């Protein structure tokens, strides 16, 4: 659930404002992985698989990323009564983070990250968003 704190200040299209803070159900585009001995949990979302209008809306924000203050929250969809109400499982606040202008990693850094992954015995896919209920 992304919520842009300074939406109006940035002069973004009012068409997008109705979606600010609204949850999105991630299905076939998501996976959840955990590290060896549950050292970490990683959630991956393939935005490239989103519908065209959604991708274009995200891309339209590109020039404003360096100015945004965004709160992100993640929950797991509840189905049964004992799984409700849903609660925030993870949240963070991104302040002026430009995901489009991130620096490229050097070959040395990539090699180091690969060694670290091998040391952790790689990730184990816990569940894809399409499996389960």
UniProtKB/TrEMBL annotation:
<protein>
    <recommendedName>
        <fullName>Protein ENHANCED DISEASE RESISTANCE 2 C-terminal domain-containing protein</fullName>
    </recommendedName>
</protein>
<dbReference type="Pfam" id="PF07059">
    <property type="entry name" value="EDR2_C"/>
</dbReference>
<feature type="domain" description="Protein ENHANCED DISEASE RESISTANCE 2 C-terminal">
    <location>
        <begin position="16"/>
        <end position="98"/>
    </location>
</feature>
<dbReference type="InterPro" id="IPR009769">
    <property type="entry name" value="EDR2_C"/>
</dbReference>
